């Protein structure tokens, strides 16, 4: 089968909940960042939260992106690693419900604990994540599906994978397979902490340049060692043929390989910024793999990400994706 997008990344069951700033202070959680934690630490936090008000779904940064692209209409494949436990089976069921193919077979899953991400949203719409990677920390080149990758238009790599040696090796091997097969390479920096603390590893992945890069303003400046967006975008041209820099409420700035393009934001009242960047990337990738121009794809991505921050959770419903396309193109 031919795929539009082949993604690799962490498989995490997202537990999305609302907390206030005092909860973060009491439990000494660094606000606004993704922090890796051990199982017992995450269990303590989960116990302290009223999970009746939470929402659980399959996630991870790249998973959210390929699911978004799939909901818009792209054919997607996702390589990941889950365990033979309740959360692992839940993850694969939810992935398939969103019409995303995968390397994992629910009848033959390894022993271990499926990763989980506790996503805590505060009243100011900021999202803070505490992640226990579980078995996904063992994601490696063994989970790559070369046939699906070489039959895809785009390889999408999640920046969070650089935190482990085996994850980094998988990214580099996937990139090499893609380049040899003529598959476009795409990287997302994922989080400022990935660029800040794993810049050398990120540099290894991006060595030789990628075809398309997704990042936000802070990540762009951290990676390039610059202090303004204008300086950062010039420096990024050495590393990516094309890129998209998201700017939150100010929209986004695209580079199509020739011209800088400003994408206007859609004004909404943000209640949860969780998944905004993932949604932007997924909607954008849908656009460029389904006949839309760079500018049109930017508009789809901007409208989709604005809608996702106006509600809780990192996903839109299928009918919301359809309405976005209808609003823009009919």
Short note summarizing the structure:
This protein is an alpha/beta fold and 330 residues long. Helices cover 40% and strands 23% of the residues.
What would you say this structure looks like, in words?
The protein is α/β, with parallel strands linked by helices. It has one domain: UDP-N-acetylmuramoyl-L-alanine:D-glutamate ligase (3-Layer(aba) Sandwich), CATH 3.40.1190. 40% of the residues lie in helices and 23% in strands. The protein contains 13 helices and 14 strands. The strands form 2 sheets. A 9-stranded mixed sheet has the order 6-5-1-9-10-11-12-13-14, sandwiched between helices. The longest helix has 17 residues.
Task: Give structural attributes.
single chain, 330 residues, alpha/beta, UDP-N-acetylmuramoyl-L-alanine:D-glutamate ligase, nine-stranded mixed β-sheet, five-stranded mixed β-sheet, 13 helices, 14 strands, 40% helix
| Secondary-structure element order, N to C | EEHEHEHEHEEEHEHEHHEHHEEEHHH
Number of strands: 14
Rounded average pLDDT: 93
CATH topology: UDP-N-acetylmuramoyl-L-alanine:D-glutamate ligase
Radius of gyration: 18 Å
> For the largest beta sheet, what order do the strands appear in spatially?
6-5-1-9-10-11-12-13-14
- The low-confidence runs, each spanning 5 or more residues with pLDDT under 50, are none
Overall spatial form: globular
Q: Compute the separation of the termini in Å.
A: 30 Å
Give me the number of helical elements.
13
CATH architecture label:
3-Layer(aba) Sandwich
What is the domain tally?
1
Largest sheet: 9 strands, mixed
Give the helix proportion (percent range). Answer: 40-55%
- The CATH homologous superfamily name equals Ribokinase
Which CATH first-tier class would you pick? Alpha Beta
